[in-house]
Amino acid sequence: MITLDLKLPDAHYPIHIGRNLLTRTDLLKPHLPIPSAAIVTNSTIAPLYLAPLEQALKAEGIATRVVVLPDGESYKTWDTLNLIFDALLAGNCERKTTLIALGGGVIGDMTGFAAACYQRGAPFIQIPTTLLAQVDSSVGGKTAINHPLGKNMIGAFYQPRVVIADMVLLDTLPDRELSAGLAEVIKYGLLGDAEFLAWLESNIEQLRARDPAALEYAVKRCCEMKAEIVGQDEKESGVRALLNLGHTFGHAIEAGLGYGAWLHGEAVAAGMVLAAATSQELGWLNAADVERVISLIQRAGLPVRAPDLGLTNWLEHMGHDKKVEQGKLRFVLLKQLGQAVISSEVSHDVLQRVLSGQNVTA
Amino acid sequence: MITLDLKLPDAHYPIHIGRNLLTRTDLLKPHLPIPSAAIVTNSTIAPLYLAPLEQALKAEGIATRVVVLPDGESYKTWDTLNLIFDALLAGNCERKTTLIALGGGVIGDMTGFAAACYQRGAPFIQIPTTLLAQVDSSVGGKTAINHPLGKNMIGAFYQPRVVIADMVLLDTLPDRELSAGLAEVIKYGLLGDAEFLAWLESNIEQLRARDPAALEYAVKRCCEMKAEIVGQDEKESGVRALLNLGHTFGHAIEAGLGYGAWLHGEAVAAGMVLAAATSQELGWLNAADVERVISLIQRAGLPVRAPDLGLTNWLEHMGHDKKVEQGKLRFVLLKQLGQAVISSEVSHDVLQRVLSGQNVTA
Ligand SMILES: NC(=O)c1ccc[n+]([C@@H]2O[C@H](COP(=O)([O-])OP(=O)(O)OC[C@H]3O[C@@H](n4cnc5c(N)ncnc54)[C@H](O)[C@@H]3O)[C@@H](O)[C@H]2O)c1
Ligand SMILES: NC(=O)c1ccc[n+]([C@@H]2O[C@H](COP(=O)([O-])OP(=O)(O)OC[C@H]3O[C@@H](n4cnc5c(N)ncnc54)[C@H](O)[C@@H]3O)[C@@H](O)[C@H]2O)c1
Ligand SMILES: [Zn+2]
Ligand SMILES: [Zn+2]
Given CB 3.0 to 4.6 Å as the disulfide criterion, which of A211, A328, B67, B261 pairs with B87? Predict the structure, then answer.
């Protein structure tokens, strides 16, 4: 097991990465202010992993309630969130009852937001069960639900007490979901670590084959980078925005097609190709760079071509993005491979060329 | 105009108290990160005060949207909150658009919570229009909505950028609402300032007659006390709980009768009498002390006798209170007039006697 420490101005918490951690109550217990917990999970994950966790907690004398939500991004809504509140209140759960998110990014984001709001803030713990959640969503305290007019529009910055990433849980993850997680892994290489990008180019097949050492290294490297960035800029007033590489385009794809049609990671993958294409238009990347991006994303089993939303739709959905400032769209682009920057200087022309796919080489 | 400063560990904000402040855009403008605002108010207040505020902002070149909500505690729900989100998103409002709460505690609590959640945190400003909001709810950053199983159960600690309390707005406040506000004013005297309590006993008629100097003094003294307490304990891990004097009982009354039947301040008034009676049972107050409490509350035009909820209902509703810890009810009681303490040592017997009204002298 490796343990990283995410340091914020007035808090810090551990991120444990390893194998067979699910029932390691020794990692959980120090973070429960009272011996009372509520596990939030979904109907796919519950039959796989709920019983061992619940039993381990109960064996330690921790009063444990369970909330099983329906599975899917389309349920990342207030109505589903309310199922958590209903269960907590019906069970007389107190402000110090710890919410434990056992699931992927959808469960983690909703459980974190529920914890942020329940009695104005209950403790919470992340046990991410997808690659995407282990490398990205479980770390850093962004929580949210969707609104029909925009993804993750309603939420909070609210940090977990501990993150426990058990690699073994990835064994049951469908291939398509594993690939979606690899999109965020590739994102880290592209935005800030050319060496890691090169390592990914050499190890992408091992990762898809779930080679334990390769997976553990990738999760560790991503969490290190995320912890460092979030430690510098918890509320995304600066550098944290770089983590949104591919996401302005990606969120528009998700909203444009209707949440759930494409996986988040798939939308981000196609979004990163568009970000690379835009960077090429600005003269920052050359054709070979863009080809490297496309090839790695393709080898990860991910789409490299965005769906045709139509320019009006693209602009409409990107206009709702949280990175809009003073009416200007802000894009995360690539100065070079391994170095992202924020730019609000993308002209309408460039955008139109990129979105109509005229310069995408794949 | 008097200006107080609420100092928190890593922020501080001004509380302006005076007359004719509604159109003083000089007090607002320094707190808007971009020239874009959304005024949130209700259908009662809009015809009275919306136009002057909106015009003043527009005259300063501030793009201003308006959201008019239905009026009433029964609308302090997610559905109403969603009307704010719908309007913000339909209007392409950004993360830096400032939400301005123009209203009483219901509007203030909902607007604050909407700001806390919108794009994970938009700036917000409080312009309280009721006495209760001016002395209590607009200051200190508690925001919330109700859940059918408990009042203010879903919310956030989220501070405004500035609070602007314009006494003139109180001129149109119905008498019953003014009295409800006086309940919270009396609360401050009882919990922490025997001298202020004595001042209230001498000035309660002037306050009910809306004597400008008396009102301004009372608002100032309450805000001073609130600012000091919140400055010491923003998240209510200690001393801030004292501000809930009368509220454990009061919230049970509100929930037990259905939100809206009694005003919040009325429920708190009857709740303070019960807290005083409990304190007498514990030997801390004597009969004359309790009589003083009852008499002042009565003179303020407030109920001194709680409705008969039945013991099971009382306990059920108090069990959902945020002050429950490890299954124990925690009460704010009076060691003496002007000094509140927290106690989780109220026996079932004492509670039963107090709730059945056997020892209430009025
Ligand atoms: N908070 C953040 O910082 C952040 C960052 C990135 C993404 N996100 C959010 O994360 C969400 C996507 O997360 P995700 O990709 O984990 O999707 P997800 O949570 O929907 O999980 C994907 C699917 O895999 C299933 N599953 C999860 N773990 C499994 C396991 N171990 N075995 C078998 N099946 C399993 C789930 O039930 C689901 O059907 C999006 O809503 C996105 O907005 C948040
Ligand atoms: N956040 C906190 O710290 C805190 C503290 C105390 C109370 N509260 C909350 O505050 C709420 C009660 O607030 P309230 O007592 O202000 O009630 P309110 O907001 O419902 O206002 C009372 C009534 O007066 C009307 N009104 C408001 N201003 C007016 C004016 N100037 N002229 C004429 N009519 C006017 C309103 O439309 C409403 O009908 C409760 O929901 C309570 O939980 C919050
Ligand atoms: Zn993402
Ligand atoms: Zn109150």
Answer: B67
